[in-house]
Amino acid sequence: MRFYVEVNGREREVLLEGEGEEIRATVDGKAHRLVLREVDGLGQFAALVDGASFAVSVDGEGEGRLRIGLEGEGYAVSVEDERERASHAAEARADDAGPRIVRSVIPGIVVALLAKEGEEVEADAPLLLLEAMKMQNEIRAPAAGRLERFHVRPGETVGAGAPLATLTPTKAGIPG
Amino acid sequence: MLKKVLVANRGEIALRVVRTCRERGIRTVAVFSEADRSALHVRFADEAVEIGPAPPRESYLRIDRILEAAKRTGADSVHPGYGFLAQNAEFAEACEGAGLVFVGPPPSAMRAMGDKVSSRRTMVAAGVPIVPGTVDPVATPEEAARVAEGIGYPVALKAVGGGGGKGIRRVARAAEIASSFRTASGEAAAAFGDGRLYVEKYLEAPRHVEVQVLADAQGACVSLGERECTIQRRHQKLIEETPSPAIDEGTRRAIEEAAVRAAKAVGYRNAGTVEFLFQDGAFHFLEMNTRLQVEHPVTEMATGLDIVAEQLRIAAGEPLGYESVARRGHAIEVRVNAEDPEAGFAPSAGVVRNLRLPAGPFVRTDSALYRGLEVTLHYDPILAKVIAWAPTRAEAIARMERALQELHVGGVRTGGPFALRVLRDPAFRRGEFDTHFLERFAPPADPSREEVVALLAAAVAKGARERLGAADGSEREALSPWTLLGRWQRMRGRPR
């Protein structure tokens, strides 16, 4: 199986062969032997990489994103296999034309809505005000387009990744 | 001796107090909000009383409900922990009014130290050095300008009602002082209901050094040594250690004596911490925290004293029984907060399932973490404190590095990895830093493990696919909330 793995912003191609715990692998063409055992079903793994032993922590964060804990460091990782890569590319093309969801990157409390539903907004226009850590943050439009609707109301608490608004980007100027 | 202590707090500090009580044969009453029904401090206490909804204003800050819980359970005393009501003199008075022993200082001492102006005046009278500046607040921009000329720029305008780093404005030049005064005064009036300001010399590169004291009801007061808490971000301490690598024996004696004088000057009783700014070989009184502090364990590790046990003894009227306390080796603490260093330290919320806590020789973990804990935005972000002791500072740092490599808190982001990078910084290791250290601290990501991480991530993804393929519909459902596979698969659907 072929995977595309992005760690700290750099993508690597990982090829895996073998069933179950013992895996033959190449990372960007470099060969490795890996034994990976799940420990507790909660995200703890025991790994041997070319004989070196690691205590690995894995947390799924949705949409192919993982958080890997290794030796006290935390790594933000995204993983796609070949099939997902193809379908995400197709979705991305479709997304360019269709509505897009603006999400909160931090948990917080919605203070105020700064735009009107149904309104055309410029790229970077303030959409709403989110309070986190006693600081107010403006959430801005990722692209120019029509603000279809808000998913939140003032006073509401939102988690990281929560949908805030739906925006249909203006078609003009989008390549492909 | 106290027989039953109500712990008016939550999280790791409530558990910390409960643990000592149990060791001493003192019964405990936990109070808890709706959000904390399963919390460890509740489960490990002898009795527990629910006091309201999750927001602190409706539970942990409700003096009436806490006193009602004490009455109902027959508690004879209240330990406030830190935060919430710990420095609230009305609460201490209300406890005493209800016939409960407040495990903390007399309300008069809390008030004397709580007011910036009166505490500075008291310190000057007691011979405790303060930051050069006015003792009384200044009324006008002109007066502020006159004082600033006298002590030299840069100066700090400080709100009388501020504290903990809030309400401070740095003024670099005479030309700026009038407008700075007006805006700072307006902000202080809005934030603290008190627009008065005083003028102090602005220290450009201070260290934060504080002294732990214990004072008994008989008038004895003892220093347990200093703590270096200079590694902080927006006045939130991140790494604390004792002894301070910055001060020599003579300074140490002087700062400890000053702290004891400060405590005695306000008639202090119980455990308290006198905070100083230290720069160019001189220390200046900053404020006194009239409560147990988050970082008290480093002092416990170096002295072998259980400070909470001492608090309970003092509250029961027992004399300290010693005039000095020996210290040994070096202790260091790292606070593990629910926050995301990669997103400007934004608070992080979530459910903790994947948990691995450090242990091993001379490592102590004070935490209220458990699998299934939901971390919310209602409360203080401290999830855990990891404390390590060793004979020397270098060994204590190495031990802490080892401990943080064992720590994993999944489901939320924490500052653990960030702390690890600080510990590895050459300037930190040399002990060369000031309170601005973290503002400038931006180590590049270490790429040495990225290849291994990529490999592991792909293998985890492969395993998840194989298991999902093997599971039938009902199994998939059963797996879903609990396994990595399920969580991942469930969240992968892209909502449209």
Explained architecture:
- The complex is a heterodimer of chains A (176) and B (496).
- Chain A has 176 residues and is mostly beta strands.
- In chain A, strands 1-2-3-4-5-6-7-8 form an 8-stranded antiparallel barrel.
- Chain A starts with a strand and ends in a 7-residue tail after the last strand.
- Chain A is built from 1 helix and 16 strands.
- Helices cover 9% and strands 57% of the residues of chain A.
- The model of chain A has no long low-confidence stretch (mean pLDDT 87).
- In chain B, 38% of the residues lie in helices and 25% in strands.
- In chain B, strands 13-12-9-10-11-14-21-19 form an 8-stranded antiparallel β-sheet, sandwiched between helices. A 5-stranded parallel β-sheet of chain B has the order 3-2-1-4-5.
- In chain B, helix 4 packs antiparallel against helix 5 and helix 7 (141-151) crosses helix 8.
- Chain B is globular.
- The termini of chain B are far apart.
- Residues 477-496 of chain B have low confidence and may be disordered.
- Chains A and B meet through strand 1, strand 2, strand 3, strand 4 and strand 5 of A and strand 16, strand 18, helix 12, helix 13 and helix 16 of B.
Short description:
The complex is a heterodimer of chains A (176) and B (496). With 176 residues, chain A is mostly beta strands.
Using brief descriptors, characterize the structure shown.
heterodimer, A: about 180 residues, mainly beta, 1 helix, B: alpha+beta, eight-stranded antiparallel β-sheet, five-stranded parallel β-sheet, disordered C terminus
Task: Tell me the layout of helices and strands.
The complex is a heterodimer of chains A (176) and B (496).
Chain A: E1 2-7, E2 10-17, E3 22-27, E4 30-38, E5 44-49, E6 52-62, E7 65-70, E8 73-81, H1 82-97, E9 100-103, E10 108-113, E11 120-121, E12 126-132, E13 135-140, E14 145-150, E15 157-158, E16 163-169
Antiparallel strand pairs in A: 1-2, 1-8, 2-3, 3-4, 4-5, 5-6, 6-7, 7-8, 9-16, 10-12, 10-15, 11-14, 12-13, 14-16
Chain B: E1 4-7, H1 11-23, E2 27-33, H2 40-43, E3 47-52, H3 63-73, E4 77-79, H4 89-97, E5 101-102, H5 107-114, H6 116-125, H7 141-151, E6 155-163, E7 166-171, H8 174-192, E8 197-201, E9 207-215, E10 221-233, E11 236-242, H9 249-265, E12 270-279, E13 282-289, H10 296-303, H11 307-315, E14 330-337, E15 339-340, E16 346-347, E17 350-352, E18 355-356, E19 363-367, E20 373-375, E21 382-390, H12 393-406, E22 408-409, H13 416-423, H14 426-430, H15 437-440, H16 450-470, H17 473-479, H18 484-492
Parallel strand pairs in B: 1-2, 1-4, 2-3, 4-5
Antiparallel strand pairs in B: 6-7, 6-8, 9-10, 9-12, 10-11, 11-14, 12-13, 14-21, 15-16, 17-20, 18-22, 19-21
Helix pairs in contact in B: 4-5, 7-8, 12-13, 16-18
